[in-house]
Amino acid sequence: MSNATFYIVPEQSPQASAEGFAAYVVFLAQHFAKQGAKVYLNCQDKPHAEQLAEYFWQQPPEQFIAHNLVGEGPKYATSIEIGHQGVKPSWNRQLVINVADNQTTFANKFAEVVDFVPCDEKAKQLARERYKIYRHAGYQLQTIEIHYP
Question: At 96, is the secondary structure helix, strand, or coil?
Fold first, then answer.
């Protein structure tokens, strides 16, 4: 059974800012990769993917984890691959972290999907539409509110 988890971003949380959200996405990707998952980060577009890849490079050396943009890096890619609409992830990805607001076309290609419900009302509506897509594709759905200190 495939699963989709939506993380709800509270308005007052550090993750509500662009910088805080990017840090949280990197944290989640690293968390899943350290557990052995092959992670695909689905970004809005190529500049967004490049920006997120750059954020990975800015991590402290002890937190660094190998990553690459789609089409770059080793033949079978690294544990974390970063792409966007219009490019195909490597065949060996089990989990996608969706940070794009466009409708997903990959809902039936991954066993695990991580998505987000942002604070912004327009972005929330787009998240609701993605939720419907996952439900229609037969995913088991759950929501988790991000807790912060």
Answer: strand
Residue 67, helix vs strand vs coil: strand
pTM over 0.85: yes
Tokens of 117: 């419900």
C-alpha span between 76 and 130 (Å, rounded) = 29
Phi, psi torsion values for 35, nearest 5 degrees: -85, 0
- Cα 98 to Cα 61, 62, 75, 118, 149: the distances in Å are 25, 25, 23, 12, 25
pLDDT tens for 97-148 read 999 987 676 767 888 999 999 888 888 999 999 999 999 989 999 999 987 6
Contact of 105 with 87, CB cutoff 8 Å: no
The 3-state DSSP class for residue 97 equals: strand
Give the pair of three-digit tokens for residue 123. 């972005």
Beta strands in the chain (DSSP E): 3-8, 39-43, 67-69, 80-84, 95-98, 112-117, 140-145
Q: What domains lie within the chain, and their CATH numbers?
A: 3-145 (3.40.50.10110)
